[in-house]
Amino acid sequence: MSEQLQIPFDQRKRKPRPTVKLATNDLTREIIQHIRKLGGWATRVNVSGFYDPDKGFWRKGVTDPGTPDIIAALNGRFYGIEVKNGTDTLNEAQKATKRAIESAGCVFLIVNDIAQFREEFRAYILQHGE
């Protein structure tokens, strides 16, 4: 049996990926898939309300305002991930949630594109030895 060459995670040669602008839903799906491929858990959080056809109106959602679009866990660490596209920025509730998550010792990421996410996420994992 031949020994497999072990290359440290941060020194592997990677083929450059072309920059692709994804729609928000596609970007969200890509982020979740990436975390799951790394062995983590991730899910999308729906913060909007819903339409009640019996009553004929929209009901308020039950999720706290400012909750990140994606919540995830990898190697014992919690991640709140807010997906922003175009000129979209954090609102006040999201800023408060970011502060709360970070003050709890967890990670809050603001993601604009998949390449940026992969790079920041990889750097964070390497920095914290996970």
Summary of the model, kept short:
This protein is α+β, with helices and mostly antiparallel strands.
Write structural notes for this entry.
This protein is α+β, with helices and mostly antiparallel strands and 130 residues long. The two termini are 29 Å apart. 17% of the residues are buried. The chain has one domain: Trna Endonuclease, Chain: A, domain 1. The strands form 2 sheets. It has a 4-stranded mixed sheet with strand order 1-4-5-6, sandwiched between helices. It has a two-stranded antiparallel sheet with strand order 2-3. Helices cover 31% and strands 21% of the residues. It has helices at residues 24-37, 92-103, 114-127, and strands at 41-44, 50-52, 57-59, 70-74, 77-83, 107-111. The radius of gyration is 18 Å and the shape is globular. It has 3 helices and 6 strands.
For the record, the count of structural domains works out to: 1
Radius of gyration using CA atoms only: 18 Å
| CATH fold topology | Trna Endonuclease, Chain: A, domain 1
Shape: globular
Task: Please describe the biggest sheet, giving its number of strands, its sense, and whether it closes into a barrel.
Answer: 4 strands, mixed
* H/E series: HEEEEEHEH
The name of the CATH architecture is 3-Layer(aba) Sandwich
Mean pLDDT: 85
Beta-strand residue fraction: 15-25%
Distance between the termini: 29 Å
Helix proportion: 25-40%
- Low-confidence parts: none
Query: How many strands?
Result: 6
Order of strands, widest sheet: 1-4-5-6
Q: Can you tell me the CATH class?
A: Alpha Beta
Count up the helices: 3
Instruction: Please state the structural category.
Output: alpha+beta
